[in-house]
Amino acid sequence: MAHYFDSQPKSESQRTDFTIRVRDHWLTLASETGVFSARGLDKGTAVLLEWALKQQLPQLPAGSLLCDLGCGSGAIALTMATLYPHCTVHAVDVNARARQLCLDNATRNNITNVVTIDPIQRNPDDRYALLWSNPPIRIGKTELHDLLLTWLPRLDEDAHGHLVVSKNLGADSLINWLNAQGLPAVKLASSKGFRVIEASRSKDEKN
Question: Which of 33, 77, 146, 154 has its CA 20 to 30 A from that of 119?
Fold first, then answer.
């Protein structure tokens, strides 16, 4: 069975357009078979973006690195890139088709500050001023935990990661687990069956 977290999807490629609004900008993206949420913007990502766009977002220095962990079509990455045009967004996904789709969507919208990253080829020295993610819950608990333990500690000091997770798929237990790992986590919001979680790297984590 094919999964959106396969590195090389074998399914026939078919694309479908959808739109998202980022403040005063409308972005047109394509979704694609073999990629997470192949029919358009999924509910979880919509909840995260709706929440984020209502916040007073942090002012970040030009040149800061931002991360969309599990980029899929790139809806989160392109939103971050639009909000922070002087920063670089790393769109991370194990799925090669998702990475290409994200790049194509960035090009389509004249966005030049998105770089796709295969997690295997990550630079261990990179540090992120902001991380947003609709994490791939269905890869399995062990794999999800490994993913978060790899990427959340790469936040800059005092930076935050924001995750959106379905309540029915273990959002509350994930908060408890993150705290048990020394990665401070709290629920910031709930909407449409999803939790928006803020997580930080351990205060003992060294650069």
Answer: 33
CB 113 within 8 A of CB 60: no
Residue that has been written with the tokens 């800061």 in this structure? 64
CA 159 → CA 101, 174, 200, distances in Å? 28, 19, 7
Query: Which among 13, 15, 49 has a CA at the least distance from the CA of 132?
Result: 49
Q: In the chain, what are the domains?
A: 42-199 (3.40.50.150)
In whole angstroms, what is the distance from residue 88 CA to residue 107 CA? Answer: 15
What would the 3-class secondary structure string for 154-205 be?
HEEEEEEEEEEEEHHHCHHHHHHHHHHCCCCEEEEEEECCEEEEEECCCCCC
Reported as a single tens digit per residue, the pLDDT across 115-127 is 999 999 899 999 9
The distance between the two most distant Cα atoms of the chain, rounded to a whole number of Å, is: 47
| Chain Cα centroid distance, residue 133 | 3
Alpha-carbon gap, residue 204 to 207, rounded angstroms: 10
CA–chain centroid gap for 199, Å, is 13
